[in-house]
Amino acid sequence: MKLPLPITASVEEMKIDVGEIEGLLQGYPMDMPQWPESSVVLRDGRTLYLRAMRDDDIDVLLPFMEKVMKIDKDFYDIVGVRVYGEILAVRRKRLKDPFTILGLIDGEFVGFANGRAWSQDLAISLHTMAFSRRGRVGWAMYYAKTYYAMELLKAKEWWSTFESYNGWRMAGLAMAQPTKMWPEYQHELGGAKVYVVTQESWQRQIKNHLVSMMSTDLNFEVTDEVRKANEVMRVQETPEI
């Protein structure tokens, strides 16, 4: 907005380094821990390898998500669009304090889970996707990012919402997550209802969710065999949904 000057200015036009503008557009980052590599044995006996997304994964994931966003079933289209934007936002530095976990089985990309830190006390769940219909991959992926928020970030609350019926059943229902009052509290993903995990509910009950639902747990002592099997990530030619 251009307004008349209330006083004579010695310089009426200024050249601005866009790097200075970027300093205003980006928020300063929190000191966030890296997700440690881990593994979990799924219900069908396969081993899911979990690691943090790297910069070099982005060029592989974006074309894959372009395929996902064209699938008009089970809300894969809208979730695919949003996940594409969130992955790109990591590269463009337009997502505050994100964390992204990838799930691989023998090198094949089968699971995605991400979120971000709103503040020291609050973490926001963004999306969870599974590209394998066996073994409850999605359950393990959602649990992993919840573990990250509650155990590594030490957030007081973890806010989620669910765009699909399967996602709601997997985490909202299975974890017995209560909701906050709506519309006083809204999730940033479209203003939907907020489902919440607190430190108390996590420590008292939900921390044992993976064991109780899948008779398995996260293993942070990854074997060399599992690590070697997942050195190179590849994506499916056609997403398995």
Architecture overview:
The mean pLDDT is 96. The chain is globular. With 241 residues, it is an alpha+beta fold. α2 runs antiparallel to α3. The protein starts with 17 loop residues before the first helix and ends in a 12-residue tail after the last helix. Helices cover 33% and strands 19% of the residues. The protein has one domain: Gcn5-related N-acetyltransferase (GNAT) (Aminopeptidase).
Proportion in helices:
25-40%
What is the 3D form?
Answer: globular
Gyration radius, in Å: 20 Å
Question: How are strands sequenced across the largest beta sheet?
Answer: 1-2-3-4-5-6-7
Please identify, by name, the CATH architecture: 3-Layer(aba) Sandwich
What is the CATH class designation? Alpha Beta
**Number of self-contained structural domains:** 1
End-to-end gap? 49 Å
**Number of beta-strand segments:** 7
**What class, by secondary structure content?**
alpha+beta
